[in-house]
Amino acid sequence: MGSAPSIVFLNTGGSSNGMVNHLHIGKLSGMLKRHFSLICLIFITLFYFYEGHQKSRWRENRVIINDVVIYYSYLPATFIKKDPLWNFYEKNEKEYNQKGQYWAFKSPQGGYIPKMSMGKAMMDLPFFLIADWYTQFISNSPRDGFSRPYQYIITWSTLIYSVLGLLLLRGWLRRFFDDKTTGWTLLALALGTNLFFYATHETGMSHPHNFFLLAAALYIFPLWYNKRSFILSVCFGIIIGLLILIRPINILLLFPIVFMHRPKGMGAIPYLQSILSLKQLLISIAAAIIIWTPQLIFWKMQSGNWLYYSYGNESFFWLKPHVFEGLFSFRKGWFIYTPMMLLAILGLIPLYRKNKNSARILLLFLCVFLYVTFSWWCWWYGGSFGARTLIDILPLMAFPLAAGFEWVSRQKKRWILFIAPVFFVYLNNYQSWQYSQGFIHFDSMTYEGYTTIFLKDHTPIGYWEKLITPDYENSQKFGEERNSMPLQ
Q1: Predicted confidence (pLDDT) per residue in 7-54, tens digit
Q2: Interval 224-276: pLDDT, tens
Q3: CA-CA distance, 233 to 231, in Å (whole number)?
């Protein structure tokens, strides 16, 4: 009898501790459910920052190379050479080309003009100034614009714009989908597409910047339309101005940005009229023109014309598009190297059930944008991992991808259906590693080569003989390749 109260006390205490633990677990579970997308974003941010610091080639001074040099070199020309009109270039052109520091073409009027515009350089400017200050007052590195501090800061420019783009994309998606769906979509996009590679490995390219700008435009446009404030009008104008300046065909993005947000029940023409009647539209246009002004002045000073085509003999071949190759070829196919986008395309079906207007707008936009993108003479866009130009439109592709995840979450056997995106994340990360090691060739992949190297951690015997070098010469002249040459 005397031991009974002790037993009751122990049982009670155990139940109490169990209840407390259960409450803690319940609170934790509830927090995870309420803030799942935020937790995903924090994880992505930490992972990106770690991978970028470890995998980007800043230690070897291999960030500001190739196309990155052209986008970036406006900055050292202006702030270090003190020569924004590039007069310095003529005297030492061969030396600069050999060093890979500057690259420009001479206009008929005699002025030197880089092939790419200065939009990305404008976005990199705050980061450049930090590196320039550090180099002058703290570091022993040369103040030439290309030493290690500059290489490192451009890596961080890429990382920060990528993460900010995902942050804004989260805010936009949450207006249409629940938090869990948004979180899964962010993970799929950040880890399962070549955004991951260009944000962390091959940093410095313009695509993560365009990703950020499109995500920002999608987030801000509804606020601009509804609130009609001066600040939002300026911000929206700057964003659109930069988007178009960095890559002129990005003007096509205005179509989905505007019409995907058409209020339900309002016709397309009345909606467009309501936008054109806004006084704030003039503010946005003025802000965009201000962004374009330095470039227009530069072209005028260097070529004698306010507008200048800086790509020389490179052009589009509208009657010879390579859309199928751009999507399915083993050289650069979007669906081959970024198969997560297959799920996004399939997501157009549940998106149509959820939001017919957005699904139609996206489908029409994709048809036009893919046609224009793959009508370029070099439809594979030189050396790259997958279809890098399509990173720019990933914020739009997040919409049908989220609709697909939302549909999957309602199915009884949903965990089975999640096998595909999980595998695609693994495949994207593994192929990113293969590309960084040179196993996946930058421009000469074939079906035979791809299947030989698939998920291999080495290059099998006979692999290199299965690759084919692109016919750049005939493609640039005629819009099609006419000679097939094995990789030398």
Answers
A1: 343 344 455 555 556 555 656 666 677 799 999 999 999 999 999 999
A2: 999 989 999 999 999 999 999 999 999 999 999 999 999 988 999 999 999 99
A3: 5
Residue that has been written with the tokens 């006419």 in this structure: 482
What token pair was written down for 385? 């991992």
